[in-house]
Design brief:
Helix content: 40-55%
Distance between the termini: 24 Å
Number of helices: 14
Strand content: 5-15%
Low-confidence stretches: none
Structural class: alpha/beta
Shape: globular
Mean pLDDT: 88
Radius of gyration: 24 Å
Number of strands: 11
Order of helices and strands: HEHEHEEHEHEEEHHEHEHHEHHHH
Length: 294
């Protein structure tokens, strides 16, 4: 991350929704020489298509119906700082060539203006789609993707890195103690076990919300399993038996055991490794050797 922050080159952050793409972009900004300048983020999926061009390029008064005053676009707002173009693949395809030209020229013209303005902005893009798939589907222009994808950052889903949950939980407890005037010390070990056994479809965003809820309910002392949402707090790891056909080889038994455990943990490789007493790298290497997803 510090290597990327030390440059002004473009970066493309990919990962499922909730994995912390904006947090990663802000971290790059805060580690860079632009840290004291603006960090501006726009979400292409959250802006109506008719307003997208104005959000990016800005507009002058009277440029279109409803433009009662002039407004700077995101490039002007982020001048000398960092601009995050979130959910890039959701940007209207007709607008992408105009964005590419602005990136190439380093100059932007507001809607309704004849004057171009220069800007100095470090651009980071993010998407929850696979970029090459988005290109193949016609959602993202290849030339724009390559222009932004100087550095590629892939954020794995939280279920793929459950070893990060204790650190994230401590951070969120500290954050929400301050926000809600609580005095929670930490989590019980049994509470953490339940967090690490959950498959986290909402990723870090879901974990953040769970910790905030738990801090508000607990108020002080320790977060108990009963402070978690029912679907997480009530779910306890259960024992399972595995029946093997006669004459099963050791290699076949190993493969069946790992695949069955993966199914029971929602394809959570870290949790599967913990339950089987293996290193998560071993699980991934086994899957690759079987031509499965590693």
């Amino acid at each position: 991350m510090s290597l990327i922050a030390s440059t002004d080159a473009g970066a493309l952050i990919t990962g499922e929704s909730g994995t912390g793409k904006e947090v990663a972009a802000r971290t790059i900004h805060e580690l860079s020489t632009r840290a004291s300048q603006p960090f501006v983020a726009i979400n292409a999926a959250a802006i109506p298509e008719g307003l997208m061009e104005s959000e990016i390029f800005g507009h002058e008064r009277g440029a279109f119906t409803g433009a009662v005053s002039s407004r700077a676009g995101c490039f002007e707002q982020a001048d000398r700082g960092t601009l995050l173009l979130d959910e890039l693949a959701e940007m209207p395809i007709a607008l992408q060539p105009k964005l590419l030209r602005v990136l190439e020229d380093g100059r932007v013209r507001r809607l309704g203006s004849a004057r171009e303005a220069a800007f100095d902005v470090r651009v980071i893009a993010a998407t929850n789609r696979d970029p090459m798939t988005a290109v193949d589907e016609g959602k993202l222009r290849a030339d724009l993707m390559y222009r932004l994808n100087v550095f590629s950052i892939v954020l794995p889903a939280l279920r793929e890195r459950t070893e990060d949950i204790p650190l994230l939980a401590r951070h969120f407890i500290h954050l929400f103690n301050h926000k809600h005037g609580a005095e929670v010390h930490a989590m019980r070990e049994t509470t953490m076990d339940r967090l690490q056994a959950w498959h986290w479809p909402g990723n870090v965003r879901e974990l953040r919300n769970v910790i905030e809820r738990s801090v508000v309910i607990a108020r002080h002392g320790w977060i108990e399993p009963s402070h978690l949402p029912p679907h997480i707090g009530a779910a306890k790891p259960t024992g399972h038996s595995l029946e093997l056909p006669a004459h099963t080889t050791l290699a076949e038994a190993e493969r069946l055991l790992i695949r069955t455990t993966l199914e029971r943990t929602g394809n959570n490789k870290a949790e599967t490794a913990r339950l089987l007493g293996l290193d998560v790298k071993t699980i991934r290497n086994k899957l690759r050797s079987w031509a499965l997803d590693g």
